[in-house]
Amino acid sequence: MAHSARRDSPELPDFSVLKRLARDQLIYLLEQLPGKKDLFIEADLMSPLDRIANVSTLKQHEVDKLYKVEYKPVVSTSDQLCFLIRPRIQTVKWVCDVVNADKAAGKFKRYKIIFTPQKFYACETVLEEQGIFGDVSTDEWAFYLLPLDEDIINLELPEFFRDNFLEGDQRWVRTGGSALHLFHSIYGPFSKVYGIGRCSKMVYESWREQVKEGEQKARQAEVGTVFLIDRDVDFVTPLCSQVVYEGLVDDIFRIKCGCVEFGPDVTSSDKSIKVMLNSQDKVFNEIRNEHFSNVFGFLSQKARNLQTAYDKRRGMDIKQMKTFVSEELKGLKQEHRLLSLHIGASESMMKKKTKQDFQELLKTEHSLLEGFEIRECISFIEEHINRQVSYLKLCPLSLYFFTGLLPKDYRSLKAQYLQSYGVDHLLTFANLKQLGLLVEQQPGETLTVMESKMGKLVNDKTAGKLTDAFSSLAKKSNFRALSRRLSLVPKSDEEYDLRVPRDMAYIFSGAYIPLSCKLIEQVLERDGWTGLEEVTRLLNGHEFAVTADLRPQSDAQRIILVMFLGGCTFSEISALRFLGRERGYKFIVLTTAITNSARLIEAMLDNHV
Amino acid sequence: MMKSKADEEDYWNSSKFKAFTFDDEDDEFTKKQEVEPQLPHRVFPASCFLFPAGISWSVRETASSLREQSFPKIDTTPSLPKNSSGYSLSSLFKGKEGEREMMDCAAVSLEKFRSLQEKLLLLDEAVGVHDGNVITAVLIYLKKSLSKEVLFRELESRQTALRHFIHYLTESKEQRLLLELYRALGRTEDEALLQYKEHLRITDENKRRDFLKSCVSLPFSPEDAGHVQDHYTLLERQIIIEATDRQAETGGKVEIFQKFPRRASILNMPLITTLYYCCFYHYAETEGTYSSPANIRQTFRIAEKQYFVTALAARAKLKAWHDVDALFTSRNWLGFTRKKSPLSFSRVADILSKNNAPVQVLQEYVGLVDDVELRVALAQKYKCHFIVISTYRDLKDRQLLLGYRGKVERGSEEERKIDELLSNPQIRWKN
Fold it and tell me: Engineering a disulfide at B138: which of A200, A544, B126, B273 sits with its beta carbon 3.0 to 4.6 angstroms away?
């Protein structure tokens, strides 16, 4: 099951230095406020902080008490307060309230705000407007890169997605450039950069500017190739239900900063347990990229092996027993513990996922991807809306394909959606439209049902003409055209053995090769975008491929940094790992956040204050 | 690797204003990767934006003065109109170049830019460097130093800057100015939606209802206007229903509220939740009342299928099987009754079984499933033996019937029925 790496696969660089660097920077900043101080930490910085520093580290640098930012008045007796926050107006306003309340009460304290990864001018304007500019010192903690695993680095900036793609705010472009710059300074110099998407282009430019500004020492490159990709190049992939183990665990239990909390149904006790999920967990490491249907078989085999290992104790003499206990038992026990956890998790997921509903959901998703039986898909979706199935579980992929519907069907589904989940979702629909996930058709335009029926009846050329005749389809059927051109949907009449994956489609049960990963594969293979002109046209362009005038080193060339702007899914990471094994590459994923269908839809919600 | 639930974030969640300590145990991943860093603390300045005091502006060098570049520049904004004057931002800061070595970027006060031309140039330059932080900084300055009319007018042709401005106003909650902006730009639907969104801030239900009423006349698309009208009508009714039912519940005289106390208020729930609630508590009411399901169905033009699913779920939950029966029974003009359903009978059976309907009820609907294979599968799943038996009889499949004999209870009615069929000489078995 564990695929042996190709012999010539290059080694991944060591990312631990990134943690150490971030920690030292933080310590340096804390020391800028000498003496005892209370530290207030933004809620979503807690887990990232926990990955690089612990309480005793903070205590050593005179942090007295720690608080979570809760937007409430603070009760702190310290005369020095330090706020470690994201550069958000709302949080800064809260800090202003704290400072002004102290002022009103005649308390005089020292305040420091540490923005991470950088400060924004708009935040400082708030300090100015609230009359406390100068009373509060500000600083920046350039904590860009959090290594989550040996091949995943996370910026932990989920808001990147909404800010950039929905709001059209480019505030994180420089952040992206700085993150890349930091990576480049340690693991570069890069010799090739490919990319696609508007944001990717801008991040590339920002990075290039920063490289120009700074010193670059001549060094042996560890990572030579970079691929930048915008999330809006491929919305279909993150909207699909995940069926690879790690992705499925994320969909069901939500992995947060590389850590998951398994509830009592998994641990078969009354306690919940937090587990770090990464390559250090030997059991997890072997199943994380596997299609879920293979996982059980693997785990039970593993359990049998473990039993055999335990059974070795029988018939041992004292000396052998001593060696066994000191050398093997601990490892076995650790493995035992992990094994029972993952078996518990699998069982729990099995219960949820083998239900008829999930099978139907997957079937619907596959039909949507293939563009067949759209009528059935509509009634499936309708039925789920009628039953008020949570809109996060309701095949988010269907939202994308709402776009290809007859205006009549679209209006009817939208009306039913609002009836089931609340009229407030008008705001969600407006956001989806703004994002480009949903394109409202004008009356008189054609329907996908018609297209798919016609497509079956007539040859491609005629179908193409028909499609052209209905101009609207050109916009939304880009996916179909892309899918045909890149063969994203394998022929369904062939058997697909999920135990022996033949391509990246295995991550979606053999039904679909993720567009994002397919693009990466194609560009690497062609060493650029040549021959993909039609594909880039369908993706609205913004592709680039640049080469530095450096002598490329072959090993570093094959270590490829893929930077996802707007987030990537665990399924995509699994697909890239597969591609790496097949082609002798090593991929490092640098993402603004780990995403999935639920997070993507949640980012579009506005029906709360 | 593992930490128990009690620590860390859960502790945070539970501690109110109290300080805490989480355990100092480092995770293995961190420990393993600890090595001495080779880099000094601040090798990589996060941003050259230091804004040391007051409003400041940073200048980036033009390419000419730079060191050899190894990567080429790519055109990031092919559509951006280049200013024709040849008057570039950096030329405004002549003589600043020398400071480059001292600071990463030179800081200059924005207040220098007084003419509209300079201000707009500044904005266009900011957009050109693709740093949202800079764009917003310039916009904040322009907001302070230009009249709304002029600013809005100039933003109209600058989409990137406009989106930054809208986002800034949204984040700093300057609703009124944002509405004015939308109005000035003629973006009426955005204006309507933004105003409609305000209802979320209103907690008092009567005020919220009145506010929603005022939203109906906002310039929505005709389709959305209908939805907003529904929202208002729904809340209006929920307020009436809630008041009446709360009274009935506390009065203790209405049986259903005693037997099934309400779990939550119906206020601000979606329409379908409201329909379910009314099918649960007010099923038998005549169409004249606000809470009658029939009235709700009609007022909100609820699709037939949707209505059936909801009514079925509510009545099945109450185990009111005769209501379920009546729901699907229709009478033709001759007075014969037959079962009709807008949703498939297999789905009906599914909903019923999830509500623990007895076999007698279930078999009625399983028997109506057209597809023979599906019918047998469902009948076996729900243990509707008679349906299985009669289907096998209709198929004249003696072998299957014989096989099924082993699955029913010894001496049961089902067994007797099978024996009776097997010994019936009038059936022409196919095997």
Answer: B126
Cβ atoms B161, B194 nearer than 8 A: no
Say what the pLDDT of residue B334 is.
Answer: 73
Indicate yes or no: CB of B306 within 8 angstroms of CB of A419. Answer: yes
Domains in chain A, please, with CATH?
15-143 (3.40.50.2060), 144-234+491-608 (3.40.50.1910), 254-354 (3.90.830.10), 357-476 (1.25.40.850)
- Note the pLDDT of residue B106: 33
- Cβ count within 10 A of residue B46: 23
pLDDT at A356: 62
- pLDDT (tens digit per residue) in A190-239: 889 999 999 999 999 999 888 887 766 667 888 889 999 999 999 989 99
Selection from B340, B342, B320 nearest residue B330 by Cα: B340
**Residue from A52, A56, A128, A209 whose CB has the most chain B CBs within 10 Å, to mutate:** A209
Is the minimum CB–CB distance between A181 and chain B shorter than 8 Å?
Answer: yes
Contact flag B193-A261 (C-beta cutoff 8 Å): no
Mean pLDDT of B421-431: 83
Task: Compare CB distances from A544 to B74, B166, B168 and report the shortest one's residue.
Answer: B74
* Identity of the residue in B60, B72, B135 whose CB atom sits nearest the CB atom of A170: B135
Contact (CB, 8 A) for A448 and A374: yes
Contact: B4, A271; criterion CB under 8 Å: yes
Provide φ and ψ at A292, rounded to 5°.
-55, -35
Q: Which residues contact A408 (CB under 8 A, 6 or more apart)?
A: none
Residue with tokens 């899918």: A483
Q: Which residues contact A341 (CB under 8 A, 6 or more apart)?
A: A262, A266, A267, A273, A275
Q: Is A117 on the interface with B (CB under 8 A)?
A: yes
Mutation target among A171, A181, A194, A416 for the B interface, most CBs of B within 10 A:
A171
**DSSP-assigned beta bridge partners for residue A547:** A192
Neighbouring C-beta atoms of residue B254, cutoff 10 Å: 13
Nearest C-alpha of chain B: how many angstroms from A503? 31
When CB atoms are compared, the residue of B22, B189, B190 closest to A55 is: B22
- The reply to whether residue A550 touches residue B70, judged by beta carbons under 8 angstroms, is yes
Contacts of A103 (CB under 8 A, 6+ apart): A132, A135
Q: Can you give the residue ranges of every domain in chain B?
A: 109-186, 319-430
Mean pLDDT of A175-187: 93
* Distance separating alpha carbons of residues A497 and A294, to the nearest angstrom: 10
DSSP 8-state symbol, A70: -
> Mind listing the pLDDT tens digit for each residue in B87-122?
344 433 333 333 333 333 334 577 788 889 888 998
* Segment B305-356, tens digit of pLDDT: 899 999 999 999 988 988 988 888 877 777 777 788 888 888 888 888 888 8
pLDDT of B153 over the 90 cut: yes
Structure tokens that stand for A88 in this block: 């958000």
Q: Which of the 8 DSSP states describes residue B337?
A: E
Predicted TM-score of the model (pTM): 0.83
For residues B123 and B159, give the distance between their C-alpha atoms in angstroms, rounded to a whole number: 12
Write out chain B residues lying below 8 Å of A193, CB-based. Answer: 71
Residue B35 and residue A186: Cβ atoms within 8 Å? no
Confirm or reject contact between A68 and chain B (CB < 8 A).
Answer: yes
**Residue A469 reports pLDDT greater than 80:** no
Radius of gyration of chain B (CA): 36
Testing the interface with B: which of A128, A169, A181, A550 to mutate, by most B Cβ within 10 A? A169
CA distances from A65 to A60, B13, B22, B26, B274 (A): 12, 16, 11, 19, 48
Contact A167 B167 (CB under 8 A): yes
Q: Is the pLDDT of residue A336 over 70?
A: yes
Per-residue pLDDT tens over the stretch B364-381:
888 888 888 888 888 888
